[in-house]
Specification:
Elements lengths: L1 H4 L2 H9 L3 H8 L4 H8 L4 H8 L4 H10 L2 H9 L3 H10 L2 H11 L6 H4 L6 E2 L5 H11 L8 E5 L5 E6 H6 L6 H4 L7 E2 L4 H10 L4 E5 L5 E6 H4 L6 H4 L8
Parallel strand pairs: 1-2, 4-5
Antiparallel strand pairs: 2-3, 5-6
Helix pairs in contact: 2-4, 4-6, 5-7, 7-9
Length: 241
């Protein structure tokens, strides 16, 4: 099927040119994963409109395939009762991740973060970390940073994949991680998050609470939402799916 071979950004462009009946028919030809990837290329208000005519079970499947922050944005466009109905149909773990995001103000770090990120402990070797990442990272997931946490999930360091590749196989994470982690609080504003990402040339920034526990990350595309046009933002790499 040629439609299935198109990039989600191209599918989104096609849907945006269609009327309601055409878009319904078009989306009906796609599976939940394809719909999720396509919806992530358009604004939340249009996402909500596009899924309206789908069966509830199909919407729940699509929400499970979306990144938690994107799913939360879509559900925030719906009445609270309707949002809860759909959350109840989702797998428990996925629904819980989305519910957590909905608790925070829409324009806060907590409201725009994703709960999909990679962590390791400082006692692993570089070789063990690479083996773990091979197992843990999904095929379509792009990871630029790995965060280091202790046994209580306190953020204590960070390293890039470049740091990992250059490290000796037997080097401990604690030896090559950077302890100077730039982070934001759950309730910091989106503008402040964007300023830090720009100032330190980051691709993502970790989100912590007042106890230094790691809750999520904000990727550059979500942080810059208010600063650059949507059409440009959606062409930035999507780091987590």
């Amino acid at each position: 099927d040629k439609i299935a071979e198109l990039h989600p950004a191209d599918l989104a462009d096609i849907i945006c040119e269609m009327d309601r009946s055409q878009s319904d028919e078009f989306l009906d030809k796609l599976d939940a994963k394809q719909i999720a990837d396509t919806l992530e290329e358009v604004e939340p208000d249009l996402q909500a409109s596009l899924v309206e005519s789908m069966p509830d079970e199909k919407i729940a499947e699509v929400l499970e395939e979306m990144s938690p922050d994107e799913a939360a944005d879509l559900l925030a466009e719906l009445p609270e009762e309707r949002s809860e109905e759909l959350l109840d149909l989702m797998e428990e773990e996925e629904a819980e991740n989305v519910r957590k995001l909905l608790e925070y103000p829409e324009d806060s770090a907590g409201g725009i973060m994703t709960t999909e990120f990679v962590t390791v402990t400082p006692d692993l070797t570089a070789e063990q970390t690479i083996a773990m990442l091979r197992e843990k990272i999904e095929e379509d997931e792009i990871v630029f940073y790995v965060y280091v946490v202790d046994s209580e999930n306190h953020l204590i360091g960070v390293f890039s994949l470049s740091d990992l590749i250059k490290a000796r196989p037997d080097a401990l994470v604690s030896e090559f991680m950077d302890q100077r982690v730039v982070s934001v609080d759950l309730y910091d504003t989106q503008d402040y998050v964007a300023q830090l990402i720009s100032k330190y040339n980051l691709l993502a920034i970790p989100v912590i609470d007042d106890q230094q526990r790691l809750h999520g990350i904000v990727t550059i595309d979500d942080a810059l939402d208010k600063i650059i046009p949507t059409a440009w933002k959606k062409r930035l790499p999507r780091f987590y799916h």
